[in-house]
Amino acid sequence: MNRDTLIIIPAYNEEKSIAQVIRSILRYTPDADIVVVNDGSTDNTAQVAGQAGAIVLNLPFNVGIGGGMQTGYLYAHEKGYRYAVQIDADGQHDPADLPRLLQHAKNGEADMILGSRYIAKTSYKSSAMRRVGMIFFSKLVFLLTGQEVKDTTSGYRVVNKNLIDLFSRSYPTDYPEVEVIVFLKRHGYSLLEVPTEMHQRQAGVSSITPFKSVYYIVKVALALIMNVLRHRKARELS
């Protein structure tokens, strides 16, 4: 294996968009390998991804975004990649930003480079509920880590080998994006947020409903606070 970068695409029933996403990534980063973690899809996501040129890892049933991403990091760790990229399968992330995100990582500017919709003006328009969630999580992450992060739920991320090793051993399971930020900061790693474009999804329907948004905010907030309290208690007892 001579290539140093692995693009990880967790995918669940994304047969209508996955081929275009893979072709766009190859256009801007032809020297990277692409792995699609087929998270128990019931459509032809795996077949379409393989035909488009990706390595496909098939999970026997749907485990969610956390399990899918950790599968990708395990693969990256076992194959010795130095950089791993998380990118969505629905076409919302613009691969044109990818070379710039990777360059920040290869310059050693941080252990994680986070593509952000909210630190520069983009065409992305979020719902009112999503904006409330973003503000809430941004303030909570600052309270818990001391670092201001505006787009805490962005799934457009580049990590270096240090974090590939960490995430292959431990990774939050359910709605992990915000928890991962607190998790890596607690282990002493760094994060740099840079502006990226965000498009509307190319096909399919988002699984995030208003009810699920409220559930997400409450669940993730409780998980973050409990993890921090448990970590502090463990340090006091050690």
Automatic annotation (TrEMBL):
Query: Any idea where the Glycosyltransferase 2-like domain is?
Result: 7-164
Q: What Pfam families does this protein's entry cite?
A: Glycos_transf_2
State whether keyword Transferase applies: yes
Keywords of the record: Transferase
| One Gene Ontology term of the molecular function aspect | transferase activity
Q: What is this protein called?
A: Glycosyl transferase family 2
Its domain of life reads Bacteria
Q: Does the keyword Zinc apply?
A: no
Could you tell me which species this protein originates from?
Effusibacillus dendaii
